[in-house]
Every structure is written in C-alpha cells, then in structure tokens.
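anyone else get weird line breaks when pasting these?? whatever heres mine. first is seq + tokens for prot A
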Amino acid sequence: MYLKSIEMHGFKSFANKIVLDFHNGMTGIVGPNGSGKSNVSDAVRWVLGEQSAKQLRGASMQDVIFSGTENRKPLSYAYVAITMDNSDHMLDIDFEEVTVARRVYRSGESEYLLNGSPCRLKDVNELFYDTGIGKEGYSIIGQGQIEKILNGRPEERRELFDEAAGIVKYKRRKATAQKKLESERENLIRINDILSELERQAGPLERQAEKAKIFLKKREELKKNDVNLFLMEMERIDAQLKEAAVNYETVRGQLEETTAFHEKMKTEYEQLEDAMEAVSAEIESERNKLNESTILKEKLEGQIGVLNEQIKAAELSDEHFGNRRKELESERTEKENQLNAYEEEKLALDMQLEQAKQRLKKAEHELKNLQESIQNCNEKIDSGKNERMELLNQKALIQANQQKFDTTIEQISIQKAQLNQRLLQKKSSESGLEHLLEEETHTLQKVQDEIEQLRQKEQKLEDGQSQRRQTLAELNRTLEETTAKYHKLSSRLESLRNIAERYDGYGNSIRKVMAQKEREPGLLGVVSDLIKVEKKYETAIETALGGSIQNIVTKDDETAKKMIAYLKQNRFGRATFLPLTSVKGSGDIKYPEALQEPGVIGLAHTLATYDETYRGIMRQLLGRVVVADTIDHAAALAKKYRYSLSIVTLEGESLRPGGSMTGGAFKNSGNLLGRNREMEELSAEAKQTQELIEKQKACREELLTAIALNSDDMEKVREELQQKYLLENTAGLNVERARKQKEQSEAALKNLQSEGMKLESRIREMKEEKAQAQKEIAQVKQKEEELEQETATYQEILDEKLYLEGSAGRSFSEAQMEESNIRQKSEFAASNIERVKEEIEKCGIQIQKLSEEAELAKEDVKQREQQIDHIRQTIRSSEDEFVRFEEILQKKVLQRDEIASRQKEFFGKREEITERISHLDKEVFRLNSQKEKLEESRERQNNYMWEEYELTPHNALAFREEACRSADELKKQILSLKDEIRSLGDVNVNAIEEYKEISARYDFLNAQHEDLIRAEEALVNIIEELDSGMRRQFTEKFAEIRREFDRAFQELFGGGKGTLELVEDEDILECGVRIIAQPPGKKLQNMILLSGGEKSLTAISLLFAIQNLKPSPFCLLDEIEAALDDSNVGRFADYLHKLTENTQFIVITHRRGTMASADRLYGITMQEKGVSTLVSVDLIEHDLEK
C-alpha cells in the first residue's frame, strides 16, 4: 500500500485545485520559504482527522479555508482528498483504491468521505489503526514532532511508542470500554434508586391489591345476594300493601257507624251523671264530718295506749338499772385486785432485767477485749513471717551477686592485659593522613555547595509539585463525590418525576382524567400541583385540604362535564372538579378577631403561593380554615369561639365546627405537596452540583497544565544534578577514603584508651560492691534471729488468748439468753396492766351512765299519767256528735244508690259501644301505619339499591336467581359477607391497577438491571484483557524498538550508543520514555546535554528505528533534517533511501543532499501573492543554482 495522490482545493494557500501524484520510492517537495510547502503536510494531517487548529498553525478550523488575497475572494470551503493504493489489502476494506476526503465550510459544517460515501471520523481512525498512519502516528513528521521528541517530557513521547507498539487501537478500545463502563455504572445507580423506590411502593401496594381483590370478590357476591334479597322483600311488601289497603277501607266504614251511635248515648249519660254528682257531693260532705269525728276518737284512744305502755316500760327499766349497777361494781372490784397483782410482778421482773443487762454488758466487754488481742497477735505473727521471707530472698540475692562479682573481676583482668597490647600497636602505626584529607575535603565542599543550590531548587519544585498533586488528588476525590452526589440527585429527581407524571398516590379516576390533559386543554391540573407551600406548613395545608387536594381544576363547566362523562363511559370511578367559572370562593371567616389570638398563624390560603387565576378556588378550599401552631392553642381557640371555627395545626391535627377533633400518626411520611417541593429542591441542587462539577473540572485542567510545566523544570534540574552527582561521587570517594583512614586510626586509639579506663573503673566498682554485699549478709542474719524470737513469743500469747476466748463466748451467750427471757416476761406483765386499767375505767363510765338514765325515767312517768286524764275527757264529749252525723249519711246513701242503679244499666251499653269504637280506631291506625311502614320500607329498599349499586328495581331483575334460597339464609350470608368485608379494614380498590403498573415497570427495570450487571462484568473483563494484552505487547515491542534505535543511532552517528528507558515506579501502560544517547567519543548522557544537530539526529534515529521495526505505508517528513550539517544530511539521505524498500517517503526539504536522493521533485511557489502553485522541476533547479 502507498499514497497515490493528494488533491487540494481551497485549503490554506492552495486556492486552485492541485493534484500531487506519487509513486513508490522517495518524492521531494521543495520551494522557497513561505511558498506553502508545509501546507501539504498540514493537508495530509487534516484529512486524517486532526481536530486541533493549533497543530495546523491556525486559531480556528475556519483558518484552513483559503481566506482570499487582494485579487481573489475568499472561498467558502476547503477540500482535501488522499488516494491510497490498497492492492495488497492492508486496509480492511474491499477496494483496490481507497480515497479519504474531508470538506469543511465557513458555516462550520464539515464532512468526511470514504470513496465518495459520507462516513464518520471514527471510521477513518479505525481504517488506519496499526498502520502508523494518522494524526497521532509516525507517518507525518514535522519540525514540531522533532521538537516534541527532543524537548518533551518522557510522558509526552509515549504516544509515538504506543503507535509503534500497535497498542493505540487497544487503548482507544479500553477508553471506549471505560466510558461505557462509567455510563453503565451511572445507569446502574439510577436504576438501583428507581428499583428501591419501586420496591418501597410495591410491598404495601401488593398487600393492598390482594386485599382489594378479596374485597371486590366479596362485594360482588354481596351485591348478588343483596339484590336477590331486595327482590324478595319487594314482592313481600307489594303483597302486604294490597292486603292492608282492602282491610283499611272495611274497618273505616264500621268505625263511622259506631261513632254516630256513641254520640247519641253520650248526651243521655251526661244528664244522669249531673244528678249523680249532686247527691255524691252531699254524701261526701256528711261522710267527711263522720270520718273526722271517728278519726279524732281513734287518735285519742291510741295516744292513751301509747302513754300506758311508756309508763310500764319506765317501771321495768328502773329495776333493770339497779341489777346492772351491782354487776358492774362487782366486776370493777375484781379488776382492781388483778391490777395490784400485775404491778407487783412487773416490779420484780424489772429488777431482775437490770441485773441481767449488767451481766451481759460485762461478758460482752471481756469477749471483745480477747478478740482484739487475738487479732493483734495474728497480725504480728503474719508480719514476722513476711519479713523472714523477704530476708531469705535478700540473702540469696546477695550471695549470687558475690559469685558474679568474683567472675567479673577475673574476666576484666584478662581484657585489660589484651587491651594494653593493642594500644601499643595503634600508637606505632598512626601517621600523616591530615594533609591528604584537607585537600580532598576542599574539593568536595565546592561541589556540594553547587549541589545544595540545585537541591534547594529541586526541593522547591518538588514541594510545589507535591502540593499540586495533593490538591489534584483532593480535587479528583471531591469531583468523584460531587459526581456521585449529582447522579444520586438525578436518580432521585427522575424517580420523583416519573411518580409525579404517573400521578402515583392519587386515585385511579384522577390518574385516568389527568392522562387526558394533553388532549383536553381545559384540564388545568389537580389542586396539589397548583399551589406551593413552605415545608413547615405542608402538613397543615394538606390536612386543611383533606380529600380536596386531589380535586381537579378545569377551565370551565363544559370541561368538567366532559370529564365526568368520560369517567362514566369507561367506569373509571368518580372525581371532583373545580371549574374556574363556577368556584369563586368569596367571604371570610365568621370571627376575624380570631386571627389575633395566641398561637394563630393565619388563614390557610394566606400561607400558600398560587397563581392569581386560582385565587377563588383557594379561598373556597382554604379561606375559612385557621392555622394554629399547636393543638393546645387550637383547642383553646375552638372553645373560645364555641366550636364554630375550622382549625388545623402544624402537626396535622384538625378541629372541625361542632367540636370534633382529628389527629394521630400518619401512615407514611410522604405527602403530595411535599413531592413538588422536593422535586424543585432536588432540581436546584442538581443544577448547582452540575455547575460545581464543571468548575472542578476546569480547576483540574489548570492543575494538570501546571503539573506538566513544573515537571519540565524538574527534569532540567535533575539532569544538572546528575552531572554534579558524578563529580560529587568522585570527590566524595577520595575524601571518604582519607577520612575513614584517619578516623579509624583515631577512633581505634581513643576506644582503646577509653576501654582501658573503663576496665580499671569497673574493677574498683566490683571490689567495693563485693565488700558491701558481705556487710549486708551479716545484717540479714542478725535480723532473721530477732524475728524468730519475736514470732515465738507472740505464738504463746495467741494460744492463751484463744482458750480464754472460748470460755468468754459461752458466758456471753448464757447472759444473752437470760436477759431475753426476763425482758419478754416484763413486757407481758406491762401489757396486762394496761389492759386491766382500761377495763376498770370502762366499768366506772357504765355505772355513772346507768344512774343518770334512772332519774330521767321517773320524771317521764309522772308527765304521761297527766296526759292520759286530759285525753279521756275529750273522747266523752265527741261521742254524741258522731251519732247525729251517721243518721244523715244513711239517708243520702239510699238516694245515691237509686240513681246509680239507673246509671249502671246505661253504663253497660256505653262501655260496649266505646270498646267497639276503640277497637275499630286502633285497627284503622294499625292498618294506616302498616301501609306507611310498607311504603317507607319499599322506598328504603329502592334507595339502598341505587346508593349501593346504582340499580333500579327494573334493572335489579337481571340479577334474579331462579333457584333462590330463603330470605333468612340470604340475610345470614349477607351479614357474614359484611363482617368479612369490614374485617378487611380500609381498602384501596385502585391498588390493583397501580400494583400491575408498578410490577410491570419493576420487572422491566429489573431485567435492565440484570443486563447492566452483565454488561458491567463483560466490560471489566474486556478492560482487564486489554490491559494484559497491551502490557505484554508493549513490553515485547519496546525491547525491539530499543535494539533498532541502537542500530540506527550507530549507523547515523557512525558509532556511539543509543538506548531507551522507561520511567520507573509507574504503570508500564502510562509511564514515560527517556532517550539516552552517547555519540562517538562522549560519555553516555541525557538528550538535553547534546548539541542541536546531535539532538535532531538522535530523534531521527528513533523515527527510523520505528520505521525499520514497523514500516508505515507512507511517511511524510517536513524539514526534519534542517539542523543537520552536510555530512549528516548525506548519512540521513542514504539511510532514508534504504527505508524506501518498505515505505514510500514524501520529503519537504531545503537541503540539496536530500533533494539529490529523491526519485522525483515537486516545486511549490507563489507566482501570485498568497496563492501556492505547482511548478516544473527545471524551474526549481535553475532557481537553486542561482
């Protein structure tokens, strides 16, 4: 494969279309300075995908378009195409010729073409992978690339070696895989957040859905039974209504006839009744008089009987009083005798108790003294034993030290003799190293001063670099944290937006209506979406709104009607609509002064923010609700205004007019108002986080640039240090050698003298310590004997005290028992004395009371006898009056009996008629009530069917079961079903649909989650495989490049040595490359120390080594030999000519030696100012000869 042609039109100075045709071998492009030769190199670089305008010597990509001259207008586009011969199919494409073209317009649009078909830059890059061709390859080498190789940092040379080693495509694949991996992990984080949210919702929803299914099944069964029972009840009621109507009419006719007859009899009866009343009044008068006389007589006789009984009772009591008094006096005498006996016994016992206490105290004192003596003896004996043990240990230690002293003294004497011998030898061998040391030290000090200055400079650079790297690491860590935070916020925000878009948490009917929002512009939103509330007021406002928070606001009545029809048609349930044209929300609370009460925050609608359009609706929903801070203030406020206000608190308690209070814990912490606020907060925080990420990235780029510049300075300082270190090493070795000899001699002498003095001192110390140890042994023996005698004395005293302690203990126990017995007897005698005294006192009180009662009874008897005489006189005077009243009464009674006889006959007839009327009246009332109840029951059944199931009696017939069960059985089943439904508690029927939606979404996301995990594992494996392959391939290829570089270096320099080194302690895939050169006759040294020509020739050696190892199909060289002298240009041209066996070379040059080696020449000149053209070779050669 080789480059067949380059076509340029409108590219930089090539205003006209120019085609350069090439063949195998070496082609030279020559021309004066500024003629546009290097634009050919730029054209090839640009068509291969160069994106940096700076690399193309421009400020922007529009600078590559011909900008015009004084005589020419600017062109609107630039076009370059290169055509490659692909007959060997080196490029992976099924064409013998491959043309790659690029076109850019002033508008900024650009395109790539591959054989005339549009393609991507990526396609172009992938086409030339591993060929050496490309903007980052080694097929296009200009002066800038030479400079980069010469003066660049080791890391900057890396790209060239990667391309030569053939790992660029793997690095790009790795970078692509890492980007995909990062993207997959970000997606994984987002999906994990969404899955967590869905799992949190799915659990409760699944339970609610299962409950809802059971509820719907039982409710359907209940409906079927309810409707059949309804039909049976309606049939029964209709039959009873017909029967009751017939009976009612019959009974009503009978009642009217009987009532007329009763009225006639009533008039006759009233006349008899008047006569009867007159006679009865007279009889009653006489009878009252007679009764009064009789009652008076009976009352007086009763008083006489009572008085007689009282007199008899008084006489009997007097006799009883005498007997009782004698008994009490006898009992008192007996108790006084007992008291005297108990007091004498108590006195004797007290004396005995006092004697026993004295004996007990004496025994206790003796026992305590003995115990203290025993304890003291034991302590003395234990102390003596411990001291003896310490003395024995001390004695053994001293004896061991004595033996040690003897051995040590003997050893030191031997060492002293040997030391004296060595000291004599050292004194005889020491002489004349001082002068040599001074000379070498002066040379070393001069070099070290220079190194110190360079070290300080290097340290300063390293400190700055370390600080920058530390700042970069911290910035990277912060950037990672910020990025993770941003992804987390984005995931949470996306999750909340998805929930909000699906209207999760709202009723099914609300979600179905809001799904039509895009189709129906009159739907403005639910109430919760139209207001904003501060976080601290959210609970209060949501409590105030209650179910109204899910009400739907519409533009007008027509939209509301349309949506209600939509819900009915699809049986989606019910919803409440608030048309702006209907809901105006006027009026304020009844007591405005309530807003000034303690704890009142304000009216609910004033604490919310909303568009002025919805003011009427918000005043309607919240305008009469007062918000208080606590339930205590709310309760006080409600009570003060007689429970006429609607009040809510910040914690969600609700007090309604009438006195009801609602409160407690919420089932979950989420709310519809807080959801919108949280989305706004998350959106703002995510935006701030994203801005912070951009700032951090910008800071990181600045730091990387500073680190790169600082690394260049450090490299230069290190190279200077390297030279100084070589000098320092030479001088240092000389100084060190002289110093060591002198120091060793002096140190040896001093050590020997010091060691001799130490040995003398040690011998004296050992002798003194041995004498001291002998004295201490004598003292220990003496003290040991004294302790033995003292311990024996205390042991004898202890034995005696223990015997006495046993005897004293027995005496103390006996005295204690005796004292306890006497005390118990004394306490018993004292309690008997108190008891007898109390009994004597009671007897005296009873005797005195009996005497007083006897005197009172005698006086009472005399008074009662006088009362009896007075009553008997009154009875005798009333007996005559009683006889006269009795005669008058008998006459009146005979007259009344005659009237009563006539009335009795009449009364029997009237009673019969009245009873019949009453019976008929009750029957009419009963039948009428029966009809009303049946009609009410019928209406109640109809209402129940409509309210519960929205069924009319006619529609209910469709649910009739022919083989129906009895009404009692149906009722039992209905009650059972209602109990089962009630036991289910609150049921969310919409949960079934919600759970289906969430489950489907969860399954879909979970599948994506598994796919992402597998993709992540695959990408990690790919990256690891790429790393492993790249390391292996780079290691092999780098070794080959190093060998080829050394051969090329020797051939171009005519000898010497060149080598390549990797920067240590860095990853082999990222580390830089150092170039070490040793021209003939010079030391091995870094590139920086070479001359300009040597540097250029070294860089050319490296490029040729790479071409030898991995030839590129063509290579375009732009004046890379400009710094070489003629002899080196000749070697360069000869070597270049050898490489044409495998590579086509296009050389832009000024040097005659290079031109002479070229197979053909193209000349570039500017015959027209600002416009490059192609001219003949002869013209160029003629110009050159001049």
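and prot B, same format (seq, then tokens)
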Amino acid sequence: MNRSTDISNSGIPDRSDLPAAFNTPRFDAVQELVLAAAADGQNLAVIGAPGSGKTALITEIFCRSVDPVKQPAAPFTLSQKTLILSPNRRTATSLRDAVNAKLVSPRAGVFSQTFVAFAFSVLQSAAAHRGELAPTLLTGAVQDELLVESLQHDMTMLPAASRDSLQLRNEVRDLWRVLDAFALPAAELASRVSDSPAVDSETVAKWIAAANSIAAAQRIAEQANRLTAGGILARATELLLSENDVEFELPQRLLIDDAADVTEGQLALLAACAKRGIQFCLFGDPDLAAVSFQGEKTRLLTAPEQELQRKTPGLRVEFQRFVLPRVYRHGEAIRNTLNRIAEGIGVSGTADQRQPRVVDRAAGSVVADTASSFSGEINKIAHQLRKHRLGINGVKPVAWSEMAIICRTRSQAAAIVRELDFQDIPAVMLGGGVVLSENQAVTDLLKQLLAIITGQPLRADFIAELATGPLGRIAKVDYSRLRAAILITERRNSTPGQPVRQVDSVLEELFANPNSFAPDYVDTPAFRSILRLAKLWQRANSQREDKTVRELLWTLWDGAEVATALQQTSLNERGAAKRYADEQLDAVLALFFAIEREEQAEREIGEEFITELLSGALPQDTLAKASQQDTVHVTTPHGVIGESYELVCIAHLADGVWPNLKSRGSLISVPTLESLLRGENLSQNTRRDTAHDELRLLYLAASRAKTTLCFFAEQSENSRPGIFWRLVQQNQVTLPETALTLRETVALLRRKLEANPGDQETAKQLRVLADAGIPGADPESWYGMRDPGPAATRSVRLSPSALKNAQDCPLSWFISRFRSPGATGSALAVGNLIHKLFEELPETGLSKAYENLREHWEEMPFESEWQSAAELKNAQLMLENLRLYSSTATAEGWEFLAAEVPFEFTVEGVTVRGKIDRVESKPNPDGSLSLRVIDLKTGKSKVSKEDAKSNLQLLSYQTAIAHGEVTEGQNTPAGASLLYPRGNKSDTRDQEALTPEKQQEFTETLQQIAESISGTSFTARIKHHCGQHGGSECEIHLRQAVSYE
C-alpha cells in the first residue's frame, strides 16, 4: 500500500530572522523536515516556487551525506553514495560548484550529472564487464546529416520543398526522440499505429515513412556504435531491468533537480533505478515544466508513485511530499507578477506552491514599457542595464554577469547581442552551438577540402568568395580593382591578333599553377594576398595522398595565417570585433571536432560527409564551458534553467512571437503520436495547451529575477504587444531610451550649448569631459570650428578632362575628385575597346579590327542580348567611320604619328597631366613637323562648333605639343579636333592652331582655375551650373545642415 504525506504552508511558525540567501546552514521549519526525511532514507517529492530553497536543500543533503563533520549537530551517515541529476549540463555544473563551495574539502569525481551522463556510465560498466567498447553519442547535428538523404526517398507524400526543409528534419528527429523514449523500435511503429481508429490513414502513413528514414539512419549509427541521447537512456534502462551478471556502480540516493522536466525516457530510467531500491529525492515546480513545450508531459513530481508504476508495472514506491512555504529570491512585487502569470497555467497535480510567503516584502521592483521600434526597445533595455551597472538613482551597482536578457527565440537573442555591441555593452548568447554552414570561414575551408578530395579545380566564383572572405581578407573593392588590373595586364601582354584571356580563366589558372605567375604580375597587395592563397591551396592539394583530412584542414587553416589575429582580437577588443573573432574561432574549432569524431569512429570522410556539413542547419554539440568574462547573458528561457540574476529583462513580448501559438509538429503530427503512445485522449493537444506551455516559459524567465524584473515590447505599425502583455500592463511606466554612455552625454551637452551658447554650466561640463579625453567633447574637434588657416600654396594637378568641370563649378570638381568612383557601365567599356582598336587600325586593317572586336565583345557588361547585338552594330559602324577618317586624313597629307601619348607640363604652378588619343603629323618646308591632335569621343553627345574653338581639353593638348612633350625638335601645334565616329558618318569639331594670344589666355584660365580649387572652400556656381541641374550632385551640399535648422 502506497503512503504519502503532504506538508504545506499550514502550521509553520513565522521566522522573521530567516536569512535572505542560502549560502548559510540555517533553514526554516519545513526545510528542516525535508532534511530529516532525507536522512531517514525516505523518498521525497519537494515542491516549491522559484527561490524557495530547493537548490539549497539539494546541496545541503549532498554535503551532509559526504561530510558529516560539516554539520556536527546533525550527523548524516546513512549513505556515502549520493548522486545529483540535473536536466542539462549547465545546471549540473552549477550544482557541482555550489556543493564544492560548501564542503570543507572539495569532492573529487563527477557527483552532479545529467540523466544521459548517468545512463552512459551504466553502459560503460556493462561494456567494461563484457570487454566491449561503450557506444558514443549521436548528436543532433549528426542525426540531421543522416536523415537528409533518406527523407527524400521515404517522405514522397510531401512536396519536394518540404522534404528538403529543416522543419521536417526537426520533426523527424522529434519522432526519433519519442520512439527512444517509449523504447519502440522504428521498424515496429507500423504494427503499433496501423489499426488506431483515432488517427487518419494519411497521418499514419507519414509516421511509418518517417520511421523508415529513422530505421535507415539507426542502422548507419549502430554500425558506428553510436546512440542518440534517448537511445542511451533506453539502452541503460534495458540493462538495469534485465537479468545479467553485471555489477553496476549505482548510487544509493538520487537527488533530482527540476523533476517536473523529467522526460519519458528519463522516467523509464528512474523506474529501473527504483526497482533496484535507490532512494529518490525529487525537487521542482510543476509550473516550470519547460520540456512540456516539446510534448513531454510526465507527472513524476506531482504523482511519482503512479508515474513510476506506469513505466514498471507492479513497482510499489512510497513518497513523502513537502511544499516549501517561503520565497527568499525576490520580493513581493516580483512574486505578485509571478502569481498572475501562474494563475493562467493549467494545474498539473497541485497548485499549493503558487502562494508562498515572501520573506523580504520590500525587495525588488517590476516595470514594463513599450517602444515604437525594435531599436527603441534595445535602447530602453540598454538604459536599464547601464543604470544598474553604474548604480544610478540609488540602484545598487550590479556586475554585467548578474544581468540577463531573455527572449523567445535564438535568432532574437543573436540580434540583441549584435545591437548591444553598438551600445558598448558586453553581451554573450548562452545556449545552442555553432551552425557550421552559417560560418564563412568554415564553408571556405570545407569547399577547399571538398575540391581536394574530389580532385576538382577551384572555380572563379568560389575564388572570389575565398579571397574576400575571412581567410583571404581582401576588401571587395580591392578585389574588383584587382580584376580590372588583371584584364589590363592581359591586354598589354597579349599578342596582336590573339584573343585576350578572360579574368576568370586567369584566376583559375593562378590556383591551378601559382608558380607560373611572377609576384609582380600585378603589383598590388591584393594580388600578393591571392597568390599566397593559391600557393597554400597547391600545397594542401599536393598532400592529399599523404595526409588525413584533419591534417589537410590544419594545413589550410594554419596557412591562412588568421588564427593569431583573431585570437588577439578576441582577447583585447570589445563589441562587434570581439564577437566576430569569437564566432570565427568557435566555428573552426567545432569543425575540427566534427572531423575528429568521424576519424575516431573510423568512418570515411569523403564527399558525402563534407556535403552534409555544408548543408547542415543544426548547431554542433559542444562541451565547451561558457565564457567566464563579466558579460550580460542573452538567451532563451531554456538557457536560464537553474539560474538567477539581479536584473532580468524579458524582451519582445510581441504578438505572434511570445506567445507563439502555432501548432507544433504540423508536418507529421508528432505530438499526436506521443499522446497515442501515452494512452491519452488525442483531443487534449489543443491551442490552449500550447498557450499554457508558452506561459510556463514566461514564468520560468520571469522567476529568474532577484531584484528587478523588466518587460519590453514593440508598439508600432508592424508589431504590437502580445496577449501576455495584459499580465504586466499594470506595471507599465515610461522608461528612458538614453543609453547612458559618454558619447551620448557629449551629444546632449553639445545640443544644449548649441541652443544656448551662453550656458556656462554646460560649457564647464564639456570642458571636464574634454580634459578627460572623451571623443567629441573638445570644441577643436567640432565640424566647422577649426581655423582652416591660409590658402594652400601647393602645386595644383589637373587632368585635361577635368579642366572644364573645374572652370564651371569648383564645388562639382571637388565632389567628382574625391567621391568614390561609381559603377562603370557598358558605354565606358565599349569606348575603351574602340580606342584600342582605333590605335591598332593603321597596322591591322578593318577586317582584322572587326575580328578583334567580336573576340572582345563577350567581355562587355551588357544587361541583355538585344542590347549587346545593337551596340555591336554601332561599334562596327564606328570602326568603318574611323577607317574612312584615316583614309581622308592620309589623302590630305596627315600621317599617323602616335597614340595614347602621355604628357605633363607645368604653367605658373599648375601641372596638367594626361594622354593624347592620337597625334598626326604633316612635314613643313623647313623640315619641322606640324602636329594635329585627334581626341576620340565615342559617346552620343557632341559639343557645339563654337565651344570647340575654346575647348580647354584641346587647348591643353596643343600646349603640350608647344612644350615639346610629344616629339623632340621645333614642332608646332597645327590644331586639334574632337572626332565623333558614332552614327552614319564621322563628325569633327575643330580648333584652330594655338597662337601666342590663345596660349596666354589659356595660361590665365589655368591660374584662375587653380585659385578656385587650391583653397579650403569651393564655390558653387549656382547660376551657371548647380541651379541648372535639378537633383545634381552639388544640391545636397548646398542645403543647410539639419542640426542648424
């Protein structure tokens, strides 16, 4: 006959002298009863609200069991074999640290474990007894990889897009968990569900097909002696229940933390332990059952006898129940908020723990506020974090690590960490792991490995990714310039009449045979960097027959020479730079671990495995300990199980986000199968149950707060607070969005001083900040405040094509001179090609020029084929017109002298430098030459004949000839022409020969231009230039600054 005893709030004397923390050996009356019952060897079920002392009781029971000297007043000698079980590794580690902090001598060995670790120790004992190897863990990421291919074949009833989706793989892995939890082989699922009248045939067919995929994956895993976490639990349970000669090293007592989160598989393991007479001490709160979100609904904490008997029929176990009556973690304000949240949660067995007595009623506060945007929400959160860090307005200063931001999803947590980086608040995302396929350093390494293993060369598109990624570290703009430089080099080195190699072909050849390229093939840092990558690739590729995959990976990673820089950034920097370095290092380390696991399991690491890593979407499992640096913790509710913080900010309680009432398992209905296997009414899995699960997560998150609890949501056109907001609406206040940073303080003070220049107090505050070296506080650094000094007297350099722009509008010249170059289109590319062919035309002839035109035409960046075809006809017509022009010029006695002639001359401190497209000559009677300049214009627009007479560009060319920059000897300029070959026939705009008068006039113009552009200000010619072009580039610079309006 089962016996249970309930001890709750009634009859407990008031102890006003109770401590508010649990690092002391003093306990209230109910807690003393729990300790006594544990010492008496009874099975216990201890229920208590968050902060009621459950963790303190667990550590105290353990400490008394192993160190009776610690508590001489209450010797505890019943057992020296006590084990603590926790739902996750982080909680187990925290409990281990708490125990060692209380013991006189820290205890060696692993006495605080997860359920899976405990089950694995059972498997290890059995394997050692039989002389076999113990199985290894099959992680979620590897499960995902095993399921990818089989689901394509088995789940044919779903659309192709669904078969390839992460959602389907998640649901199938959840189905795998259910099969393990109920010890049901995947191959036997069909016989269990085929005749169920409560489920439609389509759903049953999905279950069976998914089970077939799981069975195929299980066969592969079994060959490598690997089990899932659920499989390890099931195998250990089977061993403990079976008749065998293995002497298992089992504890005499199990202290189970968060027992409300015990899953079906863990419950079966506990039932097997109970059959062997192990004492249980269960601790938890039914309202904190976070795993119910995954479909788990065990009632071990509230009905332990029935649940254990359900798993092991005939098992008779008696439990004594206790309800802890007091809460010590937080004050009445936070407790009242938690009570409102808990009232909406469906009762699971008991609700006695929902109204505990608060020891320190005055402690703590609760606030809630909305923002008009996500960034505004982050600003409000940042203000609260920094206020508590600095101890402003009477708030006790709090370390960053004593603050937490809890949001509903992992993606939101990642976004908040990024935003806090910009606020200069150190933050780290807890929980999860590294998704290899989302990290470029990893994907670049994997793609190189894949090419090495398959014997494939690297293609140009991947070379671009590699060069501009974290391993190549070439800026994208520098890579674009490198491609342009390669094209110019290839054209310069090409043999006349032979096609020029395309840039992609050159890059692929570079990686195939880097030693054939000289280091100064293109003399730029970008080329030297990509040449280094190519030589590294060649070295790794040459080692593929002699090295393991892990050794090849190390060659590629070490040779990239980025590890040291990333490590220094991680150790010495803050904010986004540190986070980026941490992410890269963590991801590459996870990749090495993934490769190492495969090698240790003696499995082939080939194309299939690397392809699976590249397509995987699940985080890699990790045993790495979380950072011990003082940082704000950003996580989901599951990441704070067993934790507590002085300040908790619950972010983005938005409609559709928290709560998320979308149905779970919508593709293959896993919750329905779990209810069926549990023997429940299938109609119980409702939207109401989902809302209760979401409330439990909110209750879990809010209950972590010790001093301050904040709720935030966005109220805008795109987002609004969710239905849970009504639970905290009575605490709504208006919180500031100021970030409380020195940068923001400087901005506010400068704004005040701008509005009131005579404000001496504000000026003094800015002076204090300036003397402290705070950026932006010193007026000398303010825009427009520094004396520009006298006008510059340095030499002015101009190109011929810029003279007109500088004369028309100095401001426009300045903008065009110093702005980033825009994208170059097809018109410029065609113009450059026509110039080159015109230069070669005297030697090649028209037919060869046509041939060369067609060979180079594929390099032209046209957006469509019809545009390319139309422009090709125009280009061919331009070549014909240029041939006719050359014939006419020859008939008039002009001979081709040179093309692309460089020149440079200086007049009155003004230097003009450029190139002349074409120079033609005609002999004079005295033996000298008359030289004529031809400037080729392939565009559609033309200058007027009158403007050509005073064209500054042509005048600069004739001046260059007069200065002897083109040929040696006394040669005279004989005029210049703008040649327009576009259209049915060529056209020219002519300029007469340079005379001394025109030379003097040109010199004076140069001096005027130099004066207008050599100073510190640049005049806008509104009447003649800027005002004539609506929306011109000058316009934005003519508008008054916003800060002065």
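btw re prot B: The two ends are 86 Å apart (CA to CA). The first strand starts at residue 6 and ends at 7.
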